[in-house]
Amino acid sequence: MGMAASQARLLTLTARLSDNELRSQTINNAKMRLATESSQASENYINALNNATLKFTNYDETGAALTQPLTYNSLMAYSSYNTQYGLVNSSGQILVSEAEAKMFKDANGDLNKYLKAHGLEYTTTYFKEAGGIENNDYPAPFNNVSSDTLQQWYEEYGSYENSVEVENYNKAYSNYNSTRNTLTHSLSKTLEEYFGASGSGENRTSGGYEYKNEQTAQWNLSQLKTAYSNATNKYSYNNTTTQKFVEGLNNTTSGAGKAMHDLLNSYTFSVGSLIVKETSNLTQNAAGGYTFTFEDYNIIMDADGRVTEIKTSNAGDLSSTLKYETSPGVYSTPTFNDEGESSWTVPAKADTKQPTLKEFLQSFEITENRVADDGTKTPIATIKASYPDTTINTEKNITITKKYSDSEAMKGEIQNLNEKLLTILKENTDYSKFGEAIIRGQISGISLSPAVIKYVEDCIDYKKAFIETIFKDTTTQYQFPITDDDGNITGYSTAKNIEEAIDDGTVKMNSLTNEEYVLWLAKNSKDASGNDLTEETSFMSENFKTVVKTFIIENTLIAKYGTPKYAWVDEMDTQNTGNADSKAQWYTNLYKRMEKGYKTLENGLASSQQWIEYALETGLVTMEQVDKSYNWQSLEYKTCTRITEVTDDEAVAKAEAEYNRAINDIKTKDNMYDVQLKNIDTEHTSLQTEYDSIKQVITKNIDRTFKFDQSA
Question: For residues 192 and 427, is the Cβ–Cβ distance under 8 A?
Fold first, then answer.
């Protein structure tokens, strides 16, 4: 029985020792797991410390700074306070949102339409404030232009200025004007020499022309009359001044040219004398007598026709000395001027009677003098009078022969007359027609050089080309208005085309270079049947109508109201920040960059912080920035001052707390495991001792048993 009990106990101890070893191994494994948990807690903590995110600082529409996670949307958000950035892929395409891509596509290449989609419009209240333009002096459609039409014309003004129509008009005008000026310069001297420097009595001096005698002026006058009385020489009929001049040469009684006629016909010339033609002015005075007037002198007669007094209005630097023969060889010589006598009582003749008008005129002589500042008198001319046989009560021409005693004064008057005539000619001659008349042989005695002939031909060609930019065609006939001296319409020409009207002076060629004149002509001309012209029947070409639009914009609208002030208006600016200009520039920059290529970014990625960080860090996208000149420049995102790396303090604090809690828990468990291992070790030692003791007892028992059996 003892033997069996020991063996049973030994088995029990063996089982418990094996259990202790298993428990010890389990606890050691648990301790090893605590080390792994400690390492994981440390790693989580370190990750939290290293987990920094990209932040982006920009501004809202009010200027308030906003720091938020970096996303595509935050980077691209518009504000007048923000720097404009863009993201570009490896193909050089700028990334845009789905909404931005749609607006760009819908604009179909129209920047203004694209900006309109962003609520932006470049507009003005100028035209509504100015209103339309009404001008009844203009033909339709230019007589009544609405404000909307004016705005359309103005907004198309740049295209008008650069249009083919305006370019052709300006080119034709420039060519015509240039050749006309060249021809004027070339032929002005020819005209001067032909009409003002011909005749045997002319010598050229540095100051003009010196005329030795009056024959030159007489010859010139004859040439002028011949040239301008010739119906085939129409080269000077280009304006009303020339028309007056021509009329003045031929009209001796009335009409618009009467004043010119009086000037030209005040003098006729013969060698050594100047004949003045005057019509007598014989009127009855209050005393019952008569007054006879010639030049500056009034001769007073009594009722019997006897001369009693002579008066003069002579004044200034001229004086007159009268030499009157009262009896044979006896003279009376009073002086008339502004400082001396202005009237003189005529003495009776030897027969004690007052002279008759005939006797008086046949016996008197007046010397005209020029008075210098020092009072010195220089005789200018002597006037001797004669009176034809007639009765006193009949009006007759009285011929007064004025003979110059001062040749210099004579030459001065002649030169003055010629200069007046030449001034009129040079200012009013159409030189292209003048040259054409020379080429055709209509003016004798003049030959032109080949170069000048080329100028004439070019001027004719360019003139025709210029006319064709204004008129629909040059063959349709119209009745053109005829005006008086004051510009009032007095009638209409017969039906003729524009070239015929220019040839006969009805239409003023030089005035066609003035849009205002062309508009007046279009308003007041009639068709061949005498009907008023309408917009459809107007002679103005479509090309010239474009020219008129620019003319009205420049000379009517801008001249009166100034240049329109346009501004960007943002209909989405509910806070009225007034930054529409900045916004328009921003989206203009983006539009121009998109024209170079763009790629649509999905809305999900556009709002993702993780995507943009990954895309920037891996080089999937790069950044661009708009400079001061509105050009897009490459930018390294790490150098962008608006982008910063920020650690999440809250996440770090949470990770630290979790780490500390995990470490404390691990330490507690480790301590507990140490105690358990110690207890197991103690128990194991005790069990091992008991196990060894029992095993020794059993061994001894076995040995005694073997010995007993051997002795028996």
Answer: no
Sign of the dihedral defined by the CA atoms of residues 494, 497, 502, 508, in that order: positive
Q: State residue 2's pLDDT score.
A: 56
Instruction: Give pLDDT, residue 413.
Output: 56
Report the pLDDT value the prediction gives residue 105, as an integer from 0 to 100: 95
Percentage with pLDDT > 90 across the chain: 18
Q: Is the peptide bond between 141 and the residue preceding it cis, with omega within 30 degrees of 0?
A: yes
Nearest residue to 553 via CA among 10, 159, 47, 23: 159
**502 class by beta-carbon count within 10 Å (0-12 exposed, 13-18 middle, 19+ buried):** buried
Write a three-state SS string for 229-242. Answer: HCCCCCCCCCCHHH
10 Å CB burial of residue 115 (0-12, 13-18, 19+) is: buried
Give me the residue label for tokens 């100051």: 207
- Angle CA(618)–CA(622)–CA(626) in degrees, nearest 5? 160
Lowest mean pLDDT across 33-42, 286-295, 528-537: 33-42
Q: What is the DSSP string of 540-572?
A: B-HHHHHHHHHHHIIIIIIHHH-S---EEEETT
Nearest to 537, CA basis, from 465, 477, 466: 477
Instruction: Band the pLDDT of 630: cuts 50, 70, 90.
Output: very high
Question: Does pTM surpass 0.85?
Answer: no
Query: Distance between CA 217 and CA 196 in Å, rounded?
Result: 8
Q: How many other C-beta atoms can be found within 10 angstroms of the C-beta atom of residue 613?
A: 17
567 or 504: whose pLDDT is higher?
A: 567
Q: Any idea which residue has 């033609």 for tokens? A: 277
**Residue ranges of E strands in 218-296:** 268-270, 273-279, 281-284, 290-294
CB distance 478 to 529 below 8 Å? no
How far the first Cα of the chain sits from its last, in Å, is 21
Q: Are residues 150 and 133 in contact, defined by beta-carbon separation less than 8 angstroms?
A: yes
Closest CA to 224 of 379, 6, 429: 429
